Amino acid sequence: MRALMCEKFGPIEDLKITDAPEPKATPGHVVIDVKAAGLNFPDVLCVQGLYQIKPETPFVPGQEGAGVVTEIGDGVDNLNVGDRVAFVGFNGAVAEKALVQAATVTRIPDNMPFEAAAGFTLVYATSYYALARRAKLKPGETLLVLGAAGGVGLATVELGKAMGARVIAAASTAEKLAVAREAGADEIINYAEEDLKSRIKELTGGNGVDVIYDPVGGDYAEQALRGIGWEGRYLVIGFAAGDIPKIPLNLVLLKGCQIVGVFWGAYSMRSPGDNLEDLSALYGLYNEGKINPRANVSYPLADAKRGFEDLAARRAIGKIVITM
Ligand SMILES: NC(=O)c1ccc[n+]([C@@H]2O[C@H](COP(=O)([O-])OP(=O)(O)OC[C@H]3O[C@@H](n4cnc5c(N)ncnc54)[C@H](OP(=O)(O)O)[C@@H]3O)[C@@H](O)[C@H]2O)c1
Questions:
Q1: Global pTM?
Q2: C-beta atoms surrounding 13 within 10 Å
Q3: pLDDT in tens, 196-238
Q4: Model confidence over 278-297: pLDDT tens digits?
Q5: Ligand 1 geometric centre to CA of 212 (Å)
Q6: Contact 31/23 with Cβ under 8 angstroms?
Q7: Which of 46, 64, 145, 152 to mutate to test ligand 1, by most ligand atoms within 8 A of the CB atom?
Q8: Rounded CA separation 166/209 (Å)
Q9: Candidates 3.60.20.10, 3.40.50.720, 3.40.980.10, 3.40.190.10; correct CATH number of 123-265?
């Protein structure tokens, strides 16, 4: 089978398309005929050896995808050959076949295209866990999303609207903000050109926002926190800007706010039942037309490197998907 291969940690240009042996089903696992793989920012870190967990090399990158189950390992009773599924795993998705732990595989709605399903699980499940379970976002509250046209950002804009919030999208270019607006954002802030804290105050009549969703970090984090309202919740999602912010704790005291860590991967392993409930709620929202997962950009396997380059260069808008 053809697969993208990371032979050793290094620059994206070193990734190669190779012929790799086809996987065979092992106990507790299934083999999936991958139709599309979804890329996420951690994939870019992983191939460079910069991710918090380092896989053994060589490895096939890609933490999620969608396809059809072709083989079932011993002890798997939740799936059948022929099922249309989405899956999440620690690498292995950017290939024509993937061996995946059955517990991380979910059946997708019949009308959900593989390209949409490939980039669905990780971003929507993270955002749902963050908004519903960690922030307990309520209808009518104001939600600020940083990096609002990125993978998790765009999913959060949609979910925030589906949950009845007023959504303020913040991003670095007019093109990115237009996409966030299309996904339902009520207000927009270009934080490359405007002062983030002042604009938040302007848009909220001086009250500040109730919930902040931050997958970016860097200098924006403190500016955003200075715009949070009384008893607000600040969701720490990731650090795509590179720098891990150091927050003056007096701000947290003065605003009576909470800084809330969100680590979906650990949650999905520690509380698999709750995570499956979340995914089933998300598939419900999809069937009701309240969220619209899609591949904003798709590249064929032969051009997979371009997807990694887009993410690394801050060019990506929404989800990038690699089709097999
Ligand atoms: N905690 C969890 O459970 C969890 C789950 C999934 C992902 N994450 C994390 O969330 C973050 C975003 O992931 P993603 O897949 O959504 O990434 P993405 O699609 O690349 O989005 C990240 C956004 O960050 C902004 N950004 C600012 N500086 C950047 C830089 N130097 N390079 C790249 N982007 C930069 C960009 O928006 P602007 O240009 O508009 O600023 C970009 O759209 C990552 O740190 C990832 O590890 C965490």
A1: 0.96
A2: 9
A3: 999 999 999 999 999 999 999 999 999 999 999 999 999 999 9
A4: 999 999 999 999 999 999 99
A5: 15
A6: yes
A7: 152
A8: 10
A9: 3.40.50.720
